[in-house]
Design goal:
By secondary structure, the protein is α+β, with helices and mostly antiparallel strands. Helix content is 17%, strand content 46%.
């Protein structure tokens, strides 16, 4: 085979591979100022890979580009003013081609004036005599700067986002991306190192609450203004919702299931919110069989006390 024929054959083998390769380009833009960011270090992220991410720097126009990418899902990330920004779920299609995916960054602020909790959903499930509560907080930053939070000496970033929980909560659980950002636990909640970029940010976590004689108390103080608070009980539970801060419970469907929902709001920052979940006999959170045993024990104790008093009176009469 001549060298020309060999080269042509090799080219025919390599051409399909090259045709499948894609490229990812974009611009890093500071949305606070409206200007592109030059010299920003941009990382290419592969969700299923443990390898060190590929990186490049933006040019004078804020542009970056990654080439020779196999089809699949990618992400890009950068840091601006010590705050990370990510763009996930970028798909390089089969057959390759150029894909455009930019990165938005922002100036920062410690003012919470334009930050609210648009919704606080507390889904309460019965776990024996205690409650398992899953909360979904939806933060909204309506400004054009990333909110860093309050200053905090215990946070590695120097700032914290306070999350309020009912006193007595135990066994806090959170997804890995949230758990890694918890910097402090308190009796009434925990602190996150979580900057809030403009737009919406969702935080999910769960915990247990013990039940007392008068039910489960879902009481807490809001660290930010809350536009809507929703307590949700899945259908089939014997509990009911009692709260002066919420409207009357209503039947609704949540994720395709029947649920009892009580809603209220808006609430100002610092509001002491209170709700109680009750069930059992006369709202005491004691189920009827257990109430029978408790009532029986109380009756026996009362009869014993009456007998002792009668015996003492008879003795005094005999001595007199």
């Amino acid at each position: 085979m001549s060298l020309l024929a060999y080269a042509l054959a090799l080219a025919l083998v390599l051409l399909p591979v090259r045709a499948l390769a894609g490229a990812l380009s974009g611009t890093v833009v500071n949305r606070t100022s409206g200007r592109p960011v030059s010299g920003a270090e941009v990382y290419l992220l592969l969700p299923q890979s443990q390898a060190e991410p590929t990186r490049t720097k933006t040019d004078a126009s804020g542009r970056f580009r990654f080439e020779d990418l196999r089809p699949g899902e990618y992400g890009v990330a950068t840091w601006h003013l010590e705050v990370p920004y990510l763009h996930r779920g970028i798909q390089i299609p089969e057959g390759g081609g150029d894909v455009e995916a930019g990165l938005d960054v922002y100036e920062t602020t410690t003012s919470s004036e334009l930050v609210t909790i648009d919704a606080d959903h507390a889904v309460v499930q019965r776990d024996g005599d205690s409650a398992f509560v899953t909360e979904v907080l939806i933060y909204a930053n309506r400004g054009n700067r990333t909110y860093l939070g309050e200053r905090s000496p215990v946070s590695p970033t120097g700032y914290r986002l306070g999350v309020s929980l009912p006193q007595g909560y135990t066994a806090l659980q959170a997804p890995e991306e949230i758990e890694d950002r918890i910097v402090n636990h308190r009796e009434s909640g925990f602190d996150l190192s979580l900057p809030l970029a403009p737009g919406s940010t969702q935080v999910v976590f769960a915990y247990h609450l013990p039940a007392g004689l008068l039910g489960v108390h879902l009481d807490k103080r809001f660290p930010l203004p809350v536009r809507s608070m929703n307590v949700i009980l899945p259908s089939g539970t014997s509990w009911s919702i009692r709260s002066r801060d919420l409207g009357p419970p209503r039947r609704a469907r949540a994720e395709g299931r029947e649920a009892l929902v009580a809603s209220g709001g808006p609430f100002p920052v610092g509001k002491a919110f209170s709700a109680r979940l009750v069930g059992g006999f006369l709202g005491t959170n004691i189920e009827a069989p257990r109430w029978g045993w408790a009532l029986g024990g109380l009756l026996i104790a009362l009869l014993g006390l009456i007998w002792i008093l009668k015996q003492g009176r008879a003795k005094r009469l005999a001595e007199g």
